Amino acid sequence: MMISIDQPASTWIPGPILGIETSCDETAASALAADGSVLSNVIASQHDVHQRFGGVVPELASRAHVESIERVSATALQQAGLAWTDLAGIAVTQGPGLAGALLVGVNYAKALAYALNIPVVGVSHLEGHIASAWLKDPAFPLPCVVLVVSGGHTHLYYKDRSGHRRLLGATRDDAAGEAFDKGAQLLGLEFPGGPAIDRLARQGNPDTIAFPRSYLQNGSHEFSFSGLKTALLYRLQAMDEQSRVANVADLAAGYQEAIVSVLVEKSFTAVRSSGARALAVVGGVSANSRLRALLQARATSESLQLSLPPLSYCTDNAAMIAAAGRQALCAGFRASWDMDANASLSRLIGLFGLFCLFG
Q: What is the pTM of this model?
């Protein structure tokens, strides 16, 4: 449901912000100071809940959010040394994500904001990831190229000096994180698949078993990883059980290399074609150790500035949601009280290029 956007009559006075994130299987809350610095960043993981199913079960995720959200939010305030009445605003992930999981966070945030008589804003999960590039390095320069790479998204953006953003390219099929998770399932690894492949690949040789790279047409900023997943399936089907076990580390290393090498090459191609001299890589897959190593080496060789958020800001967290929400509040926006969760939220709001739906 598309909701109307409300603008407060008076300018919002910056103060402490509480961010809330419940888009998938992490219940997270974070408090930011009035100047935007992170005071706390609390995450309650549900990995143990979903691990035996090999993936996230939406109904179980929603129930776990209900059980954890009040405790996690209170802990975030306690660690920040704040009282509920110190808050000047609340930011919450509105989408995209699992509908039931998002509803828990959105409704909790609205109720809390109503009780405290403070504004609330709904933030896109993608906008939160982009904001994470500036959490540890507020001086990271514009213009820049931003690669958002996660379980559900692989997007390249150009962000100009004014903060406006333009989409350069996205995935045509599987996102990089999805390719990692599906590859891990094929290899018989535990959930979550991305970190499992990362750990196993360190024991293997990426050159022993080669996998195809999909660059699409020359100079394209778009991605495609579905063929790589199929290549892994066919490679495994052609091997007997003994060979699969003996070569599983090399398989993981070669498969990972095929993903991260494409991410790196296309990111730096986008930087060169845009004329920017800076690259930010954000999202859960940006925690991958091989990707970070290749990015850092390439940035050094090409004398480019690189922003790789600390690992605590790569995966789903509420600090990034609070940061994006603070931008929205400073721009003069707040949500109406009938704001609803939007599992497929993907539209771009024009003001400052914010990927947010404020009402």
A: 0.88
